[in-house]
Amino acid sequence: MTADAERAREAVTTPPALMAAPGYLARRIYQSYVALWTRVVDPVLTGPQFAVLTVVDSHPGMDQGSLASSVALDRSTMTDVVRRMEAAGLIVRQTALHDGRRKLLFMTDEGRRRLAEVNRLARTLDEELLRGYEGAERDRIMRELTRLAGHWESLLDDR
User: Fold this and answer.
1) Would you say the pTM of this structure is higher than 0.70?
2) Residue 52 CB contacts under 8 Å (≥ 6 apart), including other chains
3) Contact at 8 Å (CB) between 93 and 103?
4) Res 8: pLDDT
5) Rounded (5°) CA angle 87-93-95
6) Dihedral (C-alpha) 55, 57, 62, 65: value to the nearest 10 degrees?
7) Which of 90, 100, 107, 124 is 20 to 30 Å from 25 at the Cα level?
8) Nearest 10 degrees: CA dihedral of 143, 148, 151, 157?
9) For residue 56, what pLDDT band results from cuts at 50, 70 and 90?
């Protein structure tokens, strides 16, 4: 790269219009989070897979459809995630006794082991992400993020 090109690259700043766009900022946050997750927590187990493991651990035998909504995944994505996790030996699917269409999810011993390992690293990342925010301010940020997520998800229902 030439010196002029390098200077031009350094001079480029994000336009105010983008900095005022919540979607742009959310994308930046998400990209940073995924990169940090891969570096700090686990390069193989994804955030959605971690969420599925967490819910299956809390609610063994929950059906796949109900679990999908609890971790904010659409049904087709959920099916793919569960297939990969089952192939990795983290969960098992069992057909519900009285409804052959319902697939019930259970953790394997390997799933429990991986969840414990990854959960410790994920909590460390959570602390790093919120470093500098303590007590009431941290609680406020988490409430606002939860509120924003709920609001944006509700917009999908309106469409």
Assistant:
1) yes
2) 67, 71, 73, 78, 81, 82, 85, 91, 105
3) yes
4) 67
5) 145
6) 30
7) 124
8) -120
9) very high
Q: Is 134 exposed, middle or buried (0-12, 13-18, 19+ CB in 10 A)?
A: exposed
pLDDT at 1 over 70: no
Nearest to 36 by CA among 111, 112, 124: 124
DSSP 16-82: HHHHT-HHHHHHHHHHHHHHHIIIII-SSS-HHHHHHHHHHHHSTT-BHHHHHHHTT--HHHHHHHH
92-126 burial: b if 16+ Cβ within 10 Å, else e: eeeeeeeeeeebbbebbeebeebbeebeeebeeee
The label of the residue with tokens 């953790």 reads 107
In this predicted structure, the answer to whether residue 2 has a pLDDT above a threshold of 90 is no
Which two tokens mark 85?
């996790």
Give the up-direction half-sphere exposure of residue 146: CA atoms within 13 A in the CB hemisphere.
6
